[in-house]
């Protein structure tokens, strides 16, 4: 190979590899991109992963297109062109990230039955890098974790101390870009559970033993037990709240609660999904009679709103 051809080949390869801050001052075909998420009203994480994709939704093979940086802001110099950007907080607990080689298929997955921490994604659909230009984008992160609060009242159990259990119908994964569940996630939701634990506190001035507890459940979403088609009484799966009450003597009493109606009511009331920006509270009464533990959902409400009685 002749020396001039070799030099030309090396220069082309360097251009393909990307631009650095220093090269921005000398090469016309690079520009600077700054991504500054708007965290107003959100619990800001600390670390994030940033990925830039081409028109085919695949990662672009240029330097700086895949990076770990602060969730506050991120700046990179890229070759002139058009990209899409997808970012997510990498310090989220209880989850893993998969499918990142395709922007449309990137997902967040539950890594265990433990509840996930705060998970966010943010994106810029079209990032236009111009020659020696500076562009700044301020996307609003999408909160991917919802919250349901279970409020328990336990009666008839002497020395009750702890209440724990699981709720099934939980989505095991969501698309990072949209926050929607993939088909596989919908299919496996009935077998996917979220764990919860709550400390029981004795209520004063009651004749019989009475205790209260509150358990927060963080989840990626709940599948509606009610089928979209049919006569209204058909269920796609059985939504069940499993609970166990432990007492100071080491005894454990367990039961299950049919959650089909309350979960369907809540999801239908908010357009087909547990709301992201509201806390849903569900009241559950638990009673021990003749060594038989039973439980029933009394109603649900949004935050401090009026309770909606389950009939």
Overall 3D shape: elongated
Task: Let me know the largest β-sheet.
Answer: 6 strands, mixed
The helix content is 10-25%
User: Compute the gyration radius: what is it?
Assistant: 26 Å
Distance between the amino and carboxyl termini: 83 Å
Question: What topology, given as strand order, has the largest sheet?
Answer: 15-16-11-19-20-21
The low-confidence parts are 1-17
The percentage of residues in β strands lies in: 35-45%
Mean pLDDT: 88
Coarse structural class: mainly beta
Number of strands: 21
Could you describe the 3D structure shown?
The chain is 11% helix and 44% strand. The strands form 5 sheets. Strands 15-16-11-19-20-21 form a 6-stranded mixed β-sheet, with no helix packed on it. The chain has a 5-stranded antiparallel β-sheet with strand order 3-2-5-8-10, with no helix packed on it. Strands 14-12-17-18 form a 4-stranded antiparallel β-sheet, with no helix packed on it. The protein has 4 helices and 21 strands. It is mostly beta strands and 311 residues long. The protein starts with a helix and ends with a strand. Strand 20 and strand 21 (308-309) form a beta hairpin.
């Amino acid at each position: 190979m002749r020396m001039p051809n070799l030099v030309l080949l090396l220069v082309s390869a360097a251009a393909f590899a990307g631009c650095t801050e220093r090269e921005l001052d000398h090469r016309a075909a690079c520009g600077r991109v700054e991504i500054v998420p708007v965290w107003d009203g959100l619990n800001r994480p600390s670390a994030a992963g940033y990925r830039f994709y081409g028109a085919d939704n695949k990662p672009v093979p240029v330097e700086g297109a895949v990076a770990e940086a602060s969730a506050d802001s991120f700046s990179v110099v890229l070759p002139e062109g058009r990209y899409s950007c997808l970012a997510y907080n990498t310090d989220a607990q209880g989850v893993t990230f998969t499918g990142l080689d395709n922007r449309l298929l990137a997902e967040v997955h539950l890594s265990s039955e433990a509840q996930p921490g705060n998970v966010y994604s943010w994106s810029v659909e079209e990032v236009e890098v111009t020659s020696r230009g500076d562009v700044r984008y301020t996307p609003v992160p999408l909160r991917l974790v919802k919250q349901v609060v279970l409020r328990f009242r336990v009666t008839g159990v002497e020395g009750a101390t702890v209440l724990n259990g699981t709720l099934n119908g939980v989505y095991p994964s969501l698309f990072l870009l949209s926050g929607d569940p993939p088909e596989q996630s919908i299919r496996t939701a009935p077998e996917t559970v979220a764990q919860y634990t709550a400390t029981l506190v004795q209520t004063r001035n009651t004749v019989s033993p009475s205790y209260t507890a509150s358990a927060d459940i963080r989840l990626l979403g709940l599948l509606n037990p009610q089928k979209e088609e049919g006569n209204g009484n058909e269920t796609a799966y059985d939504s069940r709240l499993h609970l166990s009450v432990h007492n100071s003597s080491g005894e454990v009493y367990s039961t299950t609660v049919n959650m089909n109606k309350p979960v369907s009511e809540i999801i239908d009331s908010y357009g087909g999904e547990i709301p992201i920006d509201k806390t849903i509270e569900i009241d559950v009464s638990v009673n021990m009679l003749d060594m038989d533990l039973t439980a029933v959902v009394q109603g649900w409400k949004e935050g401090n709103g009026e309770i909606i009685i389950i009939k």
